[in-house]
From TrEMBL:
Residue stretches making up the Tryptophan synthase beta chain-like PALP domain: 78-378
One annotated GO molecular function: threonine deaminase activity
Residue sites binding pyridoxal 5'-phosphate per the record: N140, T377
Job description of the protein: Catalyzes the gamma-elimination of phosphate from L-phosphohomoserine and the beta-addition of water to produce L-threonine.
GO biological-process terms attached to the record: isoleucine biosynthetic process; L-serine catabolic process; L-threonine catabolic process; threonine biosynthetic process
Name of the protein this chain belongs to: Threonine synthase
The protein's annotated pathway: Amino-acid biosynthesis; L-threonine biosynthesis; L-threonine from L-aspartate: step 5/5
Keywords: Amino-acid biosynthesis, Lyase, Pyridoxal phosphate, Threonine biosynthesis
Pfam families recorded: PALP (PF00291)
Gene3D superfamilies in alphabetical order: 3.40.50.1100
Organism: Hujiaoplasma nucleasis
Family: Belongs to the threonine synthase family.
Amino acid sequence: MTYVKGLRCTHCNHFYPFEKDLMICPNCQEKGILDIEYKYKEIKEVMNRDYFKNNLDLSIWRYLPLLPVEEKYTKNSLRVGWTPLYKSFNLQTMIDIKSLYIKDEGLNPTQSLKDRASVIACVKALENNYEIISCSSTGNAASSLAGNAAKLGLKTVIFVPKRAPVGKLTQLLVFGADLIKVNGDYKSTYQLSKAAISHYGWYNRNAAVNPYLVEGKKTVALEIAEQLEFNLTDWVIVSVGDGCTIGGVYKGFYDLIELGLIDRMPKLLGVQSEGCSPFYKAFHEEKEMEESEENTLADSIAVGIPRNPIKGLKAVKNSHGSFEIVSDDEIMDAMLLLAKYEGVFAEPAAAAGLAGLMKSRKKNLIKPSDTATVIITGNGLKDTKNALNVINEPVLLNNDLKDLIDYIERGESNE
């Protein structure tokens, strides 16, 4: 907490000195999502290239000077962060791009990028003496909150829409969460969680309300920069639902610029599904964001009313990036290509990022001479149902070598 300067409203721009219970702008209410500001001059004195070389903590806590938490509450958390950044060779050639990197967030403790936000939420709940923490989620935020809270001894009450995938529901139930399955879409789920949190006084993990969660998500950008030795790719690509993740990615790179550790902001490409694309429409039509249908199999980005539109749009506009939309078929094609050629199994919402890169490359928005990093936000084991719909059932053979030889010579194997 030493380096937190205060909080600024993204809607009215009013600055507030740090107060532990402040989450939204008192004047603007939920439109007034707050942004954490830091004392960069002071952080520069401790965080430089040598700081990273000598830091053996391979988790998000290696970035403590840039996080709004008290160190003593971080000691017993799950090991979140420091996920691998893979250099692609196969897809890089297929897509026809100069250089491609894949950031695999599916290797976080509960297999998604959302762990970065959830562990921050749990630490903040402990700081403020809460015993119960709650959120609404399409799945990943729910399972990540349940897992991280379990490790730190917090109870969870989690609201999910009825379409949430069974893999994610299984996770959060195993972690001991009190699960409320809402007979409705994400909008209805959020509304009920909001009312319940207000009524019972639980700690609010909803990313569009809680300003500290973006600070956790930004660590994915800090890691990418460090893993690339602070020589960033031209583009960084991520799927978009509420807008919190892409807002966090921008914030991480912004912090590094302020500290003089990088000299430019990469262009950010936000990718949405054709069946739920409020950010894409607002950006390209230059108008206020409107509610969208949630008609896509990519459940993690099926958010018809994004709760963080200002930070999400700001991230793309200020980075001179863009938004792209992809079909569900393009998403599933990208999921299969990523698994087959790079060995990374992504859930549909995560594979949308790669699908967006491929589409933007075909449209020549992203050039052959460009370099790119795709953030894969969640593991494919969270949604095996959709994956099974687009792969072939394995053949059943007798224990007979001749049958096997006949099968292989007919060319019917997966190869």
